[in-house]
């Protein structure tokens, strides 16, 4: 087993001598896919929460610390040093991504490489932001030079489905803008941060990056309660975000950067290219077993094509290869959360008890931490799978007669991230787009939903997000505009 027994605080890799929490893997060489011990991480609490908070707070020093006052060019050098060292950890991090969260080899490599690219692109965008800011502007006799300044201590909490990439989409812009950070890795996908500790330690001045482990309520609560956090940056669920936010003694001062839940629908119009729609819906619903906030989580198919779509879609789902992440061509893998298969089964049972059928032959087959995706039809609003963000392999399908039906459902939903729209007739599609962009934040034409490329805005309405996470927007989310003004004499 892999023992993570150091943590990074105030520039020191400190040895942990307290209690440990076990980390399990659900991938194995047996067919059972039962959780087996993979390693252990420190079970930290209040003392360590306070320790990292003080380190980050002192390093920031109310904006007067070494890091927030450092020249842009020097901060960039530190970030370049970090990414150079990070690249050397690729094999180790990719291996741990597979073992910890069951992500396929191809997707784990993609996650690593996308993160490296993200860092390089952030550096370039940061240079551009600095160049733009360095210009003088003049209005009504006042000359101004705008700057972008840091905000203070940022608490970063990332999700288990992208423990490297999405976490770094918070961490990297927060750091480069001159903030100091406290980072607690997700529950699954935590060991893979270990190979990066040395790079964090040696690339940045002491106290700029502080890393802790443990349960949020034990170690992140004292951080929030201290009142020293300026930004809560979290990708995960709204329940955790609200709980943490509520612990801050001065919530008015807290900036939020949150990527939360979604229930992205696909709408398949009668004239859609069915081959394309099916291919995109399979990938959209089941990439990484549906454990993506951008996954398609409900399909609306026009009643005139529902029978054909359902038959061909279900056959395609049944043909998806399942196995361990390193196996060639594998698409479906075991789930890292030990309670997830039982939860998915509950959703299936609830829907079938209320009249839905499992359309695909293999739907719901399972052993311990593996459950084969179930395609459910016809789903209605009485069923839990219609309302809940399943974040796993179960696909609710509804048919509609009038386009207003899915539009009304989307407008009533608590979520508002993205939609996929499949159809050919531009005269039908164009006015629909105008309506949909006021309900969600991204309309994907004849393609599934996704976050990237990282230059495009990634955000959502209602309970789906607070703030925007393209590289461009993230640099702004983690900073404030200040300026120097002088009068014409
Ligand atoms: O889990 C939510 C992620 O933002 C999904 O990202 O669309 O690149 O897979 P992705």
Automatic annotation (TrEMBL):
Name the UniProt record assigns to this protein: Aldehyde dehydrogenase
Lineage top rank: taxon: Bacteria
Keyword field: Oxidoreductase
Organism, as annotated: Flavobacterium aquatile LMG 4008 = ATCC 11947
Every Aldehyde dehydrogenase domain range: 27-479
SUPFAM superfamilies, per the entry: ALDH-like
MF terms in GO: oxidoreductase activity, acting on the aldehyde or oxo group of donors, NAD or NADP as acceptor
Family named by the database record: Belongs to the aldehyde dehydrogenase family.
CDD domains for the chain: ALDH_F11_NP-GAPDH (cd07082)
Pfam families recorded: Aldedh
